[in-house]
Amino acid sequence: MRKVLLRWKVSSLSGIDEIDTLMQICERIEVLGHLSTEPDGVTQLVELRINEGHDLSEISELDSFEVIERHEEDESGVLVSIRCTHPLALSAVGLSNIYVYPPYGIDSKNGLEFRIFGISSSIRSFLEFVRTVMPPDTISVQTIKNDSEKDYDFLTEKQREVLELAVLRGYYEDGSEVTLKQLADELGIARSTIGEHLKRAESEVVKKAVSDFN
Fold first, then answer.
1. What is the count of structural domains for the chain?
2. Cβ neighbourhood burial of 136 (10 Å; 0-12, 13-18, 19+)
3. Segments in 30-188 forming alpha helices (H)
4. How far apart are CA 165 and CA 96, in angstroms?
5. What is the pTM of this model?
6. Residues 109 and 130 in one domain
7. Do both 162 and 60 map to the same domain?
8. Residue 193: which of 169, 172, 165, 213 has the closest Cα?
9. DSSP code for 100
10. 100 and 68 in one domain?
């Protein structure tokens, strides 16, 4: 698995059509959560601070953003549901095994940043797209390592990758209709190859589990 932090400076966003306009309307835009995700867009729970002289309704005039509902307002800003169909959001939705984790957003002083994580092949595809349509100023990529993952250093990187994909796609769930071919297609490798990786990973995990019993 890979975790990626992408950052854009304010100066880099100023020439990007709708993003530039959105920053003129709002001083700060923070996505707190994703309410729903469909192939044609994402409905987000967003906290906004509107710039003086502008109105919330201006956001819905943009092609890629629509205010669905206004929930509440306090000194921090206004809480709303917004449907986003921006190409950046659609790219993340369209790729399997890419996860964008809130909170993230745009700030008139600090620019835009958000974090994603997922399997290596999906991360690579997403970054190729981002570099084409909206090049970030910095991209920080790291392999996710935590205490639980250290326990599985006996697996190769590829074994961990295919095993994580199989679990994420529900391959091991009762009644699952996910096939090895579908998993192989997502990773861009042969069915026989992913089958061998899974077989070896499963064997190593079982042996490690039995060893831990003793």
1. 2
2. buried
3. 87-94, 120-133, 147-150, 157-168, 180-187
4. 10
5. 0.64
6. yes
7. no
8. 165
9. E
10. yes
Between CA 203 and CA 117 the distance in angstroms is 27
The H or E element containing residue 203 is helix 191-213
Q: Are 121 and 18 part of one and the same domain?
A: yes
Whether 76 and 165 map to the same domain: the answer is no
User: Could you tell me if 46 and 9 lie in one domain?
Assistant: yes
Instruction: Give the phi and the psi of residue 154 in degrees, each rounded to 5.
Output: -75, -10
For 184, the domain range is 147-213
Span 60-89, pLDDT tens digits: 999 999 999 999 998 889 999 999 999 888
Question: Residue type at 9?
Answer: K
Structure tokens of 175?
């009644």
User: Rounded distance, CA 52 to CA 86, Å?
Assistant: 25
Does position 148 have pLDDT exceeding 50, yes or no?
Answer: no
| Token duo for residue 154 | 């006996």
